[in-house]
């Protein structure tokens, strides 16, 4: 008896997210859609949080317009998206009316299959999204965010799948975002899922540790119905098994996919050329990295942490942070490490190591987590830590969104006439800052996509001093081509550096003031804290809010500032009671460790 294995190609979403910082532009997708549409894929994954974010933030494309164009160009193939349950594409829980509005609009604009997950695997956070997908007449896929821990047993995953089946899901996906699956564990899990529930099983596994193709084979042999792949020129490493390789592996067997290898070769060659255009976004961490099998820390998290530590001049403490991550994760009841829990756990571990004392600083996100604000933790959280973090404040045990009032009317009011459609309101809802900026720039006609550097080829770029550093560029802005030569670099002074350029032969001077200039505190005019009444931070970051004003009387331990670092917010408290005599920061300021931000006289 033969069984056709269905294939979802991730080339238009996860593949370039995993390899090229999600930068592929619509203009590089559309020319190949005709061929993609002829392959006979079960679906193409095209949309998700990071693609939406990158469109608005960097590419200055309307993500809804991209979706409509792909829908028109791929009339015969299901389009699929990844949705973070009640978080939709953002980082917070949205009210139910926003979830319903978003799903309805995604469906109308072209999404057929919604893969819905929750970072905690708390199925209560999936319910409203699943209902909205079914109300739109589309395919709802319930997702297991795969991880390993003492509480993540096969029985627990099977129980979750049964709950999602009862909620009306059409299929179930095993989402191994980190590359933690091993072949025999995959086989056991798939076998149990197939025997205990009736939904088709999809397998989504990253090849981070070099195991994904073996995992997929074991999944298929044990009854899995669908595999996620990436066309070969965007496959392997932190991406997925190559489409052509998996098609070839199963060809002629009882699991033949039926896909045309020759057509796939043409598509692979097309994307081979496309990938070169984005060379500046190639991460150095895209090859196989087996560390995840030892420390359970996903590759993406390691590269983020490495960047943060580098900014601190503390790259040598990487191993301490890697060792701290599993301890924080245990304190928080073993959440899977996926957006947003990967950032929550990673940042707290980073603070624990760099502050020299565990939980000396506790991020607001960890407090919210311990209060139940993200849902139920998979295991038990540390009660001691919870008391320390939230004191006598109440812990919620309801679904977090049950506490939210409807928001759509408020959001429409906030964005006002900048929104020309309900889709625009949702763009703003997903990403309030960059979404608003995008809509403002669109209104003003000033949307400017980031510049793609020319493909380095012999003869097209000259090198300075034989060091292989390009000094001549041809850039394209709004269809106009400019030739830029770097003619000189000044000395760095006060955190600023002068570059001398010529643009089309005209000399220009540009002053760069790096955003991440922390080292030595040389970029700031603020004095260093010396007294207990000098409020300062232990981490570099941005000021999100100043909670006091001059003349205010504060208590010791009272929060006076909210700062943000690595997307996580932290409260800064007054060390002594007294009167606020001076404030040296405002919302939006960049601050360095040890600077006097507020002065309090006791
Ligand atoms: Mn993925």
From TrEMBL:
Residues 5-265 form the Pyruvate carboxyltransferase domain. It comes from the Bacteria. One of its GO terms (biological process) is sodium ion transport. Residues 526-601 form the Lipoyl-binding domain. This is Oxaloacetate decarboxylase subunit alpha. Keywords: Biotin. One of its GO terms (molecular function) is pyruvate carboxylase activity. It holds the Pfam family Biotin_lipoyl. GO terms for cellular component: cytoplasm. The keyword rRNA-binding does not apply. The lineage of its organism: Bacteria, Pseudomonadati, Pseudomonadota, Gammaproteobacteria, Pseudomonadales.
């Amino acid at each position: 008896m033969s069984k056709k294995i269905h294939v979802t190609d991730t080339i238009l979403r996860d593949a370039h997210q995993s390899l090229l910082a999600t930068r592929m532009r619509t203009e590089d997708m559309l020319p190949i859609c005709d061929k993609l549409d002829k392959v006979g894929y079960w679906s193409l994954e095209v949309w998700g949080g990071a693609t939406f974010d990158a469109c608005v933030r960097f590419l200055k494309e309307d993500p809804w317009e991209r979706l409509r164009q792909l829908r028109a160009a791929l009339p015969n193939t299901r389009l699929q998206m990844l949705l973070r349950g009640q978080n939709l594409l953002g980082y917070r829980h949205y009210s139910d009316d926003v979830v319903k509005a978003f799903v309805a609009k995604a469906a109308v604009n072209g999404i057929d299959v919604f893969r819905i997950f929750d970072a905690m695997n708390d199925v209560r956070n999936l319910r409203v999204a699943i209902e909205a997908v079914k109300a739109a007449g589309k395919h709802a896929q319930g997702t297991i965010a795969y991880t390993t821990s003492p509480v993540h047993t096969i029985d627990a995953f099977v129980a979750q799948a049964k709950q999602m089946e009862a909620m009306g899901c059409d299929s179930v996906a095993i989402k191994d975002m980190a590359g933690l699956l091993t072949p025999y564990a995959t086989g056991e899990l798939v076998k149990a899922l197939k025997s205990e529930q009736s939904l088709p099983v999809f397998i989504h596994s990253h090849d981070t540790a070099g195991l994904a193709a073996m995992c997929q084979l074991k999944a298929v042999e044990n009854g899995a119905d669908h595999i996620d792949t990436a066309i070969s020129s965007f496959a392997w490493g932190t991406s997925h098994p190559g489409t052509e390789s998996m098609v070839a592996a199963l060809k002629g067997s009882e699991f033949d996919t039926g896909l045309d290898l020759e057509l796939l070769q043409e598509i692979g060659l097309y994307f081979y050329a496309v990938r070169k255009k984005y060379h500046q976004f190639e991460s150095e961490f895209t090859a196989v990295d087996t560390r995840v099998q030892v420390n359970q820390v996903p590759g993406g998290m390691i590269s983020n942490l490495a960047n943060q530590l580098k900014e601190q001049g503390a790259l040598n403490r990487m191993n301490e942070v890697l060792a701290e991550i599993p301890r924080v994760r245990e304190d928080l009841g073993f959440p899977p490490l996926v957006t947003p829990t990967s950032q929550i756990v990673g940042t707290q571990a980073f603070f624990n190591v760099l502050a020299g004392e565990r939980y000396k600083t506790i991020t607001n996100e960890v407090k919210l987590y311990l209060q139940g604000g993200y849902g139920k933790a998979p295991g038990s959280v540390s009660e001691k830590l919870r008391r320390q973090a939230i004191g006598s404040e109440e812990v919620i045990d309801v679904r977090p969104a049950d506490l939210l009032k409807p928001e759509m009317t408020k959001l429409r009011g906030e964005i006002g006439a900048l929104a020309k459609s309900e889709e625009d309101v949702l763009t703003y809802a997903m990403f309030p800052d960059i979404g608003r900026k995008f809509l403002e720039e669109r209104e003003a006609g000033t949307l400017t996509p980031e510049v793609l550097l020319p493909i380095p080829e012999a003869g097209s770029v000259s090198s300075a001093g034989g060091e292989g550093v390009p000094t001549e560029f041809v850039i394209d802005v709004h269809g106009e081509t400019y030739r830029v030569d770097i003619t000189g670099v000044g000395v760095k002074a006060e955190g600023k550096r002068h570059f001398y350029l010529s643009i089309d032969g005209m000399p220009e001077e540009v002053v760069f003031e790096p955003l991440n200039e922390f080292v030595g505190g040389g970029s700031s005019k603020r004095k260093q804290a010396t007294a207990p009444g000098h409020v300062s931070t232990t981490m570099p970051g941005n000021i999100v809010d100043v909670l006091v004003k001059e003349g205010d009387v504060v208590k010791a331990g009272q929060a006076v500032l909210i700062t943000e670092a690595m997307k996580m917010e932290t409260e800064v408290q007054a060390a002594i009671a007294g009167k606020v005599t001076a404030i040296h920061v405002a919302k939006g300021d960049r601050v360095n460790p040890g600077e006097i931000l507020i002065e309090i006289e006791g």
